[in-house]
Amino acid sequence: xxKALVAVVIIIAGLSTFAYAEQPIDVIxxxxxxxxxILKDPIYKVAGQKEIQRQKLSEVVNQNVDYKxxxxxxxxxxxxxxxxxQIDEFTNLFSKFVTVFYLTLLQEKYNNEKVIxxxxxxxxxxxxxxxxxxxxxxxxxxxxIKMIRRVDSWKAYDIIILGISAxxxxxxxxxxVLRKETPAxxxxxxxxxxxxxxxxxxxxxxxxxxxxxxxFWKQFS
Length: 221
Fold this sequence. Notes:
This protein is α+β, with helices and mostly antiparallel strands. It has one domain: Tgt2/MlaC (Nuclear Transport Factor 2, Chain: A), CATH 3.10.450.710. It is 48% helix and 19% strand. It has a 5-stranded antiparallel sheet. A hairpin with a 2-residue loop joins strand 3 (139-150) and strand 4 (153-161). Helix 1 runs antiparallel to helix 2. It is globular. Mean pLDDT is 83; it is low at 1-20 and 205-219.
């Protein structure tokens, strides 16, 4: 399930509050266009260019995702247990986890899949949901992207695929760990998780690590 193509943009005419601002669906369209361009660029087919490609993809994703909002919602009440510097460290580590795991998986598995933008629902002046269908193996997989408005831009903070919310999925895992461990310990756990993914990447993925990476929602613990 990855990134690609066209859109049917639905602008709700009566909502003048939003008329001056960039629409959430436009942000997702731009994300898809930029990501697809990077994935298809033949320069990254050259040996040794995968890390650069992954970094380019990461820059695009980081511009459009509010990782702090994701972590705040996933941690729920446990958010209050974290010191401000721990919040920053945890958020930065989780964004790195997304880069080294999911973007690597995207690089390996992308096969010109198409993403069809269906529409958007402006829930309030700061919250929206963008609906897309991912054409994957001749099936249209429904995906919802929850977005939050930050000043004059929109950022994604959750993605729901086949009814599975990333915030809820990781939130359940974070909360299970934090029932027994401290914020410092879960931060260390996340560092270890990232290292276990990065080590095989340094010599490129072995067949075994590729097999392990096929699971879309990988267990955190």
